[in-house]
Model the fold of this input.
Amino acid sequence: MFESGVNMKRVLVVSDSHGNMGNLSEVIKRSKDIDMLIHLGDIQGEDELLRSMCNFPVEIVRGNCDFETNNKLYLTIELECHKIFATHGHAYGVEWGIERLSYAALEEGCDIAMYGHTHVPEIIQGDDITVINPGSISAPSSARSFATSRPVAWSTTRSTPARSSTPCVWKPARCSTCTTTVPISTSWIPTPSIR
Done:
């Protein structure tokens, strides 16, 4: 478990690199003042390479494509006044909804749940829990997206993300006591809507 400190404030969250470390390497280079990285699984054996690219703590959970690993299916990470439930999501049936994931996170006393697996980025702000999926850093899947090496800027709602050259910051809307920020990077940007 990562021990939070007074200066521990910025967490980079990625998922589903599937052994393709190019986009991930670029996001790490562009991200400034990162205190921790959380990889939400399907890293496919590149754990040590990822750790060697970072000069900050790295937490990795096991995905459905991570066969020979000692990584756990989920981690709970305390970060200032928040408790994060980090998982790949396949064991919680996230392809059919986030209810089981949300309940598991709440049972662990977490107010933030993070998952990958679907390759579809989203942030859902609920009353008791915030659920975050950064999408896939290497193989995006969205009806309104296509692959790119540029991160997405997020808001705290389900609104369409805006194009950005650096990860933006998400801060829990209901938290007024801490300074935790979570830059969420993915490898997709929205395509223009057709009317």
Confidence is low (pLDDT under 50) at residues 1-7, 143-169, 185-195. The longest strand covers residues 74-79. The two ends are 48 Å apart (CA to CA).
